[in-house]
User: Fold this.
Amino acid sequence: MIVEYIRYRIPEQDRRTAFEQAYATAAAQLDLAPQCLAYELSHGVEEPERYVLRIEWTSVADHEQGFRGGPYFPPFLAAVRGWIGDIEEMKHYAHTAVVSPAPRRATLHEAVGGTDALRRLSNTFYDGVLADPLLAPVFADFTRTHIEHVAVWLAEVFGGPEDFTADHGGHQALLRAHLGRSITEEQRVRWMELMADAVADELPDDAELRRRVLEYFDWGTRIARDVSADPVGTDLGEPGPTPRWGWNGLA
Assistant:
């Protein structure tokens, strides 16, 4: 991978506004080009007339022959042609060994939008569950408190506050709540379908995030199904702490 820097100096305010709009249009072609890995347009703070465009290319040749010789370059160039005369530098750079450590990635709890987002998810999900003829009987003793408990549980599982363990009995209590429910595989699959709908409605439009969240639900509902076959009063032993689920699955 190489990095191209294009430095612009655009003194006129009206042309700067038009420049940013033009690059927003041109960027659509970079999104389509397989040779382009990433890009970023930065605006000068101390010197507002200056801009730096940073583009990551798979290689110099892929940029100069592949992209410029391909179908996406003509519309890209047409969008930004009016500012070619404002370019002060346009060069490729290679990375060195001097680089910062990888940034900390947000927990799933942070990525979904925190506990409030999980409350909205739970509300939407249980609205569907209680109206579903297959699942409603499983939740015959449902109360709205259940939604709050589920949101707090998910917050802890996804890397947020450990309030379910502190206030609601932790992993042991969650498992015991499923004893004697006799959940069938058909009900579990329907549960997953309704949760997938709720995730699509309530969580950020991020395919990887949604996939990781649904992977947890698939894993967790299988455990709930298996535990539910045991009668109330079963000794579950010590199931361990509340599980934590992240971008790589079970932590």
User: Anything to note?
Assistant: The longest helix spans residues 207-228. The radius of gyration is 26 Å.
